[in-house]
Amino acid sequence: MKKALISALAALALVITGCGTSQTGKSAQAGPDIAKIVKASATAQAQQKNTHMQMATTMKADSETMHVDMNADFVMKPLQMLGEYRVTGAGQDKTLSLYLDEQKTYVKTGTQWVDGTAVMQQLINPASFKSQLNGGQIKSISSTALKQAKLKRTKTTDTVTMHFTGKQAQAIMKQGKKALANNQVNALMKDAKFKTVDYQLVIDRATKLPQKFVMGLSLTYQANRLMSRWP
Predict the structure, then answer these.
(1) How far apart are CA 231 and CA 229, in angstroms?
(2) How many other C-beta atoms are found inside a 10 Å radius of the C-beta of residue 134?
(3) How many CA atoms lie within 13 A of 24 on its CB side?
(4) Which of 22, 36, 38 is nearest to 199 (CA)?
(5) I need a surface site. Which of 144, 175, 212, 222 has the fewest CB within 10 A?
(6) d(C-alpha 123, C-alpha 176), whole Å
């Protein structure tokens, strides 16, 4: 059960980075317009014809820890991905070579590529990747959420951070489960209570492109505490 729950959380992590919250809050600071900075980054990202994406997810439940890492190249129109997907820990150590488009996911076994769409659908969501790579994960952070954001500026980067707890954290995760639309994942996560959700977005000031997007969350599930981090 725990392994299934960890896998479900990994699937959910692929989409919750694109979910904002409609809850209101006090403005964290005066100064540069954070919403405009974030919008400009999303626009710049959507204009890219191809990109490289590295994802690292760490999940902990009691004494078990699982790492999910992805290193892949994407072509945007039409969407295609070629890369490596690696799972380590919690008794699930494996490395897969993957190719996907908007309809199918193929897994390399030895020297052969086989159709793995049905098997991989819980962890690999082409529509979610497309949304993220087109700036969806940034654009869908609501303006009310951004009012709570903090901004740190250097000569080369803008770093936007947000922290949500309680009802706001629950609202973000509820939107994420709805966006995922996966009955298996939603069934496993229905009893989860999300405690905190944190975002960090690092933007290159010259190109306006996002350099790094980090999401951290904590939740309780049947007396177990899980933590996840998604850069």
Answers:
(1) 7
(2) 18
(3) 1
(4) 38
(5) 222
(6) 14
